[in-house]
Amino acid sequence: MMKKSGLLLLASCTTSSAFQQVLTFNCLQNGPIRSNSKIPRAVQYMQPSSMESDDVKGRSRRLGKVDTPYKVSNGDKRVPRTELLAATLESVENVDTSLLGRFEMPVLGPKEVEAVTKVLSASLLITGNTVGSSMFVLPEAVGGVGLLNGSALFIGLYLYNLISGLLLADVAIELHESSDCEVPSSFKDFADVAMKSGAAGNAIGAASLLINSCFLAFGISHAGHLVANTLPGFGLEPTMVAAGFATILAVASFTQTNHGLEKIANVAVMVLFSSFASLLLPSLVNVSDPMGTLLAPGTNPGGFGPAAAAAIPLILSSLTYQNIVPSITKLLDFDRTKSSVAIALGSFLPVAVYIAWCFAALGGGLDNSSTSGAGGAALATFSASALIGSCVACTMSLAEEYESIISSAFSSENCSVKDKFSIPAVTMAVAPPAAVVLATGCSDLTCALHFCGAFVTPFLYGLLPIMLFQTISKKDGETASPPNLQSTILASGAVGFIGQEIIHDISQIIA
Predict the structure, then answer these.
(1) What would you report as the CA-atom Rg of the chain, rounded to the nearest whole angstrom?
(2) Which of 468, 489, 374, 431 is nearest to 178 (CA)?
(3) Phi, psi angle pair for 257, to nearest 5°
(4) Which of 389, 410, 418 is nearest to 252 (CA)?
(5) pLDDT tens across 380-438, in order?
(6) SS3 of 257, please?
(7) pTM (2 decimals)?
(8) Whether residue 471 has pLDDT greater than 90
(9) Nearest to 317 by CA among 129, 120, 140
(10) Backbone CA torsion sign across 205, 207, 209, 212
(11) Which residue in 247, 190, 255 sits closest to 223, CA to CA?
């Protein structure tokens, strides 16, 4: 009882002090409160309540306020008026309401919606170019190092490729801003304009043609096997199916515009994700031991070193998308912010797809899900969409390079930018990979991906972006700026990738 009385006395003293401070401040600022002041009408008729305690009434008398009795009639629900309430309401009434306009939610207009749509479309084009038939050989490579270590390799190589892609985007944008015409989307043109060397341009163009031709040949070969295995009752030969697929790809490439091909790739990516979701969810449920699959050690008998040497080139090749970066910058009107967002988002989605794919395959869930009719159909749809999206993007990149070669050899226009590929460029892009597939009898071309990931990719997408960026950043009469952190990471990674492959090959020869 004593504690309760002490608490009430302390609350009364505190209320009295706060009440007096508020009332004094109000009187100094606005003068005494009058009945015709700016107090809202609903408050002007409020009088001190007869239900107030004697202590509150006493403090009101000491402040010079008359204690007018107020009788609450039946049904009267008006709130009793006090001086503190009146002062508070008057202060609220004087608040500057113009400040509220600063917190309005932004409304996207037609231009903003169009910009977001273009960025997402470009991101899906990168995803379609990255997710291809190479994913079917990833589970075995990742299983050699273990899924946990393989996931770490995926994240590390994603960051490596992201630095490379952003540097290449800067090169394309800088060349566009410093030129009187739009720079064609070709690595050969990058070297010709930035390095001012025809020999360097030819070497870089040859490397770009080699790596994209290997990817296209791998995709055409797997397309032949996919159709033949999906429709066994028709007795189709994989080689003939591959030839037909290459013909359809070529016809679509020279009859459609660049934006039309982009839409085809985007539709393929949308089908890929929808079919992947319908296939992945049952596969994840069917994984018997998720934690055991994640933490399982590598299966390579030689240990982590040889397993990593075999897995890194394949993972690096599977995450390659830089061949489409010049086309992405052109599709986004050479806008640096839009290009950066599209590259970061479009290249991250394949990482998530690959890790989930390897998890489902190594855990046994993919085999269990694909045995059912719905699971088999989802797997076939997923594989077909991955092949179509990847092959379309590779064909676009190859056609860009051949258009540059044709225009430099037979045309005097240095600023010609076409929205549709010519028949000779498309034929030169599709015919050599298709010929390799037919000559090898539609055999497995995984060795081509390994070679590209071990030697060509580190040079073309590791060392080349550094050279191009340093060249365009250097002004006339100035020495090249020292390499920054990004260039150091790319150079170290490229040298490390090539070096470990050479060491691995030598050890295999000696053994």
Answers:
(1) 35
(2) 468
(3) -80, 175
(4) 389
(5) 888 888 888 888 888 988 888 888 888 777 765 555 556 788 899 999 999 999 999 99
(6) strand
(7) 0.69
(8) no
(9) 129
(10) negative
(11) 247
Q: Which residue shows structure tokens 């993972």?
A: 315
Closest CA to 250 of 384, 433, 124, 126: 433
d(CA 326, CA 165): 9
User: Residue 448's pLDDT is what?
Assistant: 84
d(CA 137, CA 477): 50
Q: Would you state the structure tokens that stand for residue 195, as one six-digit string? A: 């390095």
The structure tokens listed for 356 are: 């989930």
DSSP state of 322: G
Length of the chain: 511
CA distance linking residue 276 with residue 282, whole number of Å: 10
CB atoms within 10 A of CB 406: 14
Tell me how far apart the alpha carbons of residues 59 and 5 are, in angstroms, rounded to a whole number.
19
d(CA 61, CA 83): 12
For 18-45, what is each residue's pLDDT tens digit? 444 444 444 444 454 444 444 444 444 4
**What distances in angstroms separate CA 349 from CA 256, 311, 315, 344, one per listed residue?**
27, 20, 14, 9
